[in-house]
Amino acid sequence: MSISLSAGVGEFLDGLRTALKDRSFTPMPVREWMIPKAGGKLRRLGIATITDRVVQASLKLVLEPIFEADFSRAPTGSVRCAGLTTR
Question: Staple partner for 25: which of 19, 53, 82, 87, CB 3.0–4.6 Å?
């Protein structure tokens, strides 16, 4: 069942915002599926819930500009942060 049919997107986001603000949000366990690979081996695939994906995307939107400002790509391909250079 989709979010828009059960509660509505607005109610879903309001409830999620409240849970995040009062620190009662707990992520759900990732659902795992085994995907067959060549040679008979299996690869594990983790599928997060919609709620967890919304939280992850929101955090990315907030945190990415903060960290991008701290890390700058030098023309040589190295990353410079706090005066340290790594290759």
Answer: 19
